[in-house]
Design a protein that fits this description.
Radius of gyration: 27 Å
Number of strands: 5
Helix content: 40-55%
Largest sheet: 3 strands, antiparallel
Number of helices: 9
CATH architecture of the domain at 123-205: Alpha-Beta Complex
Order of helices and strands: EEHHHHHHHEEEHH
Strand content: 5-15%
Structural class: mainly alpha
Length: 205
Amino acid sequence: MVRVSNSKTTITNPPTSGEVSFDTTSYALTSSTLEDSNLYLTALRIKDQYTKTPSSWELAQAFKENRNEILGVRSRLVKEMEAYRPWIRIHPFNINFMKVDPRTRCVNEIDKFLNFTREETGNVDRITDADIQRAKLVPIEQLYTFQGRGKNSLCPFHTEKTGSFHIYKDSNKFKCFGCGVNGDSIDFIIKLKGLSFVKAVEELR
């Protein structure tokens, strides 16, 4: 049990065993203190970008030098998953057990990573400068079903409750003030679908 006292109320009897006594006047929070705390927390959220959950694309760019090692991990996981094949041949329903296996999710995430970090080799000739310019003119708002109210929408690249994704219609560019991703319509498709630059242009033209 806790006994509380302030300037208007006092404890008439001393606290018994198991009770705690303290004076609320020494722990009181004034309205100015609360306002300062809110401003401080807001400043932290704005300043510290590491509190935001990074997108899959951002993670891929941070670890793209580990691509060869991750390819090895994928090969090992796929080999382990081959154990399901005999059971799937016995009854097709057994494929559902493979789908819920955590290793399947790991393989899917690795495939996304590999798409994000894939380098183009000899495919640039498939597109021209005119194709790139046409792709950049495709309105970003037509490429995704955005949710949110007002000028800002919920960002498709990280989880948030308040919209921080803004589209600049005059220049057909976007910026998320939450996770920091930005770019044009080509960049948007690359980040959204994990496509290479060439395939993103081909999809938009």
